[in-house]
Structures are given as structure tokens and as C-alpha cells.
């Protein structure tokens, strides 16, 4: 029988708080919020349920002391989950009130349920951000790659890319010009490589690369910055310039993609700067 170990630490309590907050958020939304099926409602429920399930898994593994038996790197897995959960809950905290509270004519009880889900979603976001803050690597501390600033930036890069994919696919907004297809290629290639880094670190497979992991990170970081720089310039030119865009109306999705592309460029620049410091300064 495995021995149950109950540590008393700040990390434990913020995980328990996140577990409770996400559970309440999706339970209240599913029980009395009278949400429509599909679309953003399902996305918000998924954000809370996924975060709850992953946090419960992390708690059970640590309470039963099964870290050594886990098929993943336990120095990388919990903080990766916490960072993704923080981003998911944050997105739900923004999307849920915009779609299901603002300008919605619903009964008082239904509105109360929706307000409660929004409040607990915000609390869950704060709890997950607290976990990330408590478990990230400190200066001079030996930790897993995902606990460092470049590792956390990789999580943010993949999340922003996923949001971009959603925005450009409904409706499809990259088929009008070859230049826009290049932008889509940039999003896909950089997302795949960033996600590959996350998977390699969490799965402890960085040694499988034919080149040193640090050199791979540096080369990929430089390539990603150059590619995103081109996309940051090309996307607004071919979407908003009247020479390439027939109408004068621009959807909010197109504007959001332009903003998120610039945001991801900044994330990749910061990632490259941190990686260069880790590789060259540390060396």
C-alpha cells in the first residue's frame, strides 16, 4: 500500500484552492446557467473541467508519492499544467461574461449562476498564477526547463497560437493571398516546434535530438523571431490595405489576429533573449 503523504505548503494550498474554484465554476455553469450547447459555452466548460482534472491528477500523484513512477518529468509537468490552466481559466474568465452576461436578457437566478461561474473562474486564474509564481525557478536554482522563463514563454506561445488558429478558421481568412498563407505557415511551424519543446521537456526526451538541446533552442528561437516578424508585417498589410482588401469593413477577428501575432513576436523575442543568456552567459 502506498503511503499517503500530506505536505503542508503554500503550493499545496493554492492547488487545492484552484481545484475547488474550477470545480465550482463548471459545476455552477452546468447546473443552473442555462448555457446553449456548443460554441463558447463548451469552450469555457472545457477550460474549467480540464484544469480541474489535471490539478486533481497532480495532487493525487504527490499525495501518494508516485512522482518517481510517473512517465513524465515531475520537475516539468506540474508547472506546465499550472501555466496552461492559468491561461485557460483566464480565457474563460474573459469569454464567459462577454458572451453570457453582457447584453444578455436572462432571469435573475440564471444570471446569478453565470456571475458565480465568472467569479470562481477569476479566482481559479489567480490560484494558478500563484502556483506558477511559487514553483518557477529562482535565480541560481537548479530546476526543470519548463520552470524557467523560456519554458513558461513556450507555453504562452503555444496558447496564443491556438487562439490565432481559432480566429482565422471561422471564417477562413487566409486563403485570399499567398502572403496570408505564409502567415498561416508561420503560425503552424512555430506552434509545432514550440509544442515539440514542451513535449520533449515534459517527457524527458531532450537527449533524443541529434544536436545539443541548447543549440536547438537558440537556432529555433532566432528562426521563430524572423518568421513572426514577417507575419507581423504581412498580415495587417494584406488584410487592411485597400489595394489587397476589397472592402472597408474589417472584422474583429482579423484585428485580433494582428494583435496576437505582434504579441507572439514579443514573446519569441523575450524567449530568444532569455535563451541566449542561459546558453551563452551561463557558459
TrEMBL record:
Pfam families assigned to the protein according to its UniProt record, in alphabetical order: MARVEL (PF01284)
One Gene Ontology CC term in the entry: membrane
Transmembrane regions listed in the UniProt entry: 12-31, 43-65, 77-101, 113-130, 142-167, 179-199, 219-238, 250-270
Primary location recorded for the protein, binned into one broad class: membrane
Recorded topology in the membrane: Multi-pass membrane protein
Domain MARVEL intervals: 6-140, 145-280
Highest taxon of the lineage: Eukaryota
PANTHER family: MYELOID-ASSOCIATED DIFFERENTIATION MARKER (PTHR17068:SF3), MYELOID-ASSOCIATED DIFFERENTIATION MARKER MYADM FAMILY MEMBER (PTHR17068)
UniProt similarity note: Belongs to the MAL family.
Protein name per its UniProtKB record: MARVEL domain-containing protein
Gene: MYADM
